[in-house]
Design goal:
Blueprint: H1 5-29, H2 40-63, H3 69-91, H4 100-113, H5 115-135, H6 137-140, H7 143-155, H8 161-185, H9 198-210, E1 215-226, E2 229-231, H10 236-249, E3 255-258, E4 263-268, H11 275-286, E5 288-292, E6 295-308, H12 315-331, E7 337-339, H13 340-344
Parallel strand pairs: 6-7
Antiparallel strand pairs: 1-2, 1-4, 1-6, 3-4, 5-6
Domain GGDEF: 213-342
Transmembrane segments: 12-34, 40-63, 75-91, 122-139, 145-161
Protein name: GGDEF domain-containing protein
């Protein structure tokens, strides 16, 4: 994707939030009496049309995530302000209850899309306030209210810029971590038979992405437990036995590769409906007890799962998300695998 995947996920969240808010506003509009707001039917019609467009927009970014990214975001923000300004102008004095939505749109747009959209959103909002102050007799008489809300709309989102900067820093840290993992993965010294190398894993993912073919990426970290303690190093013999058992489970079309010492990856084309059963088989194959030097060692997996294209559009983002899900699984008790989507839902 031309924009990073985290921003794309934020766009999806923003889209879902819009649909939710519009559903709530539409429901509330039907509770308002015509005697209280004479033009409420017009407002309901506008909200209904806005709801249809919101659903179409969500479908577009789901199936065409790479197209017209900057243009579609700015158009969406502009369209929100046009509808909001029209509704406030129609409601007259009752429109003041919708004034805070100006700040909400600017804030949500800047947090979800980036700092540049704070600028465009702020300009759109100011244009809306100017329109109200010059075209509506009611708001001309209450320009002080317009001014107060205008200042609030511009200032409140500034408090969220710190959040955007933090997200950028976190992404840089993740990229640095992945670079370190790549470097370590090139220096594997323990020989293991029956598993592909890291480069084969990367090539397979890139090939499937070029073909737009759905697949599942599993990051597997093997955990050695003995006498109530954990040890990162697993004996060569035990590691080979576990790899042999995993190979009995993986499908012929699956790619099973080693990333680093005790960390592996599976790229599977298995249909999603069979995925959980597949994971259960992997658990059964990996969870085992071995005897090494008269010591009983138990091996357990931590598995992080990401789905293409739902959870990422390139190899780096998919790997980062699978790694994050794998570490969350490790932190939880009696949980051996975790879907990345469960972390973001």
């Amino acid at each position: 994707m031309s924009e990073n995947y985290i921003e794309y996920q934020e766009e999806r969240i923003y889209s879902i939030s819009r649909v939710t808010i519009l559903l709530l506003l539409t429901f509330l509009s039907f509770l308002i009496s015509v005697d209280y707001v004479p033009n409420i039917q017009l407002v309901q019609l506008v909200l209904g049309g806005l709801m249809i467009i919101a659903l179409l927009y969500h479908a577009f970014i789901t199936y065409r995530p790479d197209d017209f990214i900057k243009l579609r975001r700015n158009i969406l923000i502009l369209f929100d302000f046009i509808i909001l300004t029209f509704t406030i102008n129609t409601l007259g004095e009752n429109g003041i209850y919708l004034m805070p939505l100006y700040a909400l749109i600017v804030m949500q747009g800047s947090v979800s899309y980036g700092l540049q959209y704070y600028i465009s959103g702020g300009l759109f909002a100011i244009a809306g306030f100017i329109y109200l102050a010059t075209s509506s007799s009611y708001w001309q008489a209450h320009y002080d209210v317009i001014t107060a809300f205008g200042i609030t709309t511009v200032l409140i989102p500034l408090f969220y810029i710190k959040t955007l900067i933090r997200l950028d820093r976190e992404l840089e840290e993740v990229e640095e971590k992945i670079a370190v993992i790549d470097e370590v993965g090139d220096n594997i010294s323990i020989p293991v038979v029956g598993v592909e190398e890291r480069d084969a894993y990367k090539d397979e993912i890139k090939k499937l992405i070029r073909k737009k073919e759905p697949f599942t990426l599993l990051f597997i970290s093997l955990q050695q437990i003995f006498e109530g303690k954990e040890d990162d190093h697993i004996a060569d013999m035990v590691l080979q036995e576990v790899v042999d058992e995993i190979n009995k489970v993986v499908d012929e079309d699956d790619l099973f590769a080693r990333l680093s010492g005790n960390e592996f990856a599976i790229v599977s084309r298995k249909q999603r409906v069979f995925l959980r059963k597949y994971l259960q088989k992997l658990e059964t194959a990996i969870i085992s007890t071995h005897r090494v030097n008269d010591r009983s060692i138990r091996i357990e997996p931590n598995i992080g799962i990401t789905l293409y294209p739902e959870d990422g559009q390139d190899e780096m983002i998919l790997g980062k998300n699978a790694d994050e899900a794998m570490h969350v699984a490790k932190e939880k008790q009696n949980v051996h695998y975790m879907f990345y989507r469960a972390l973001t839902s």
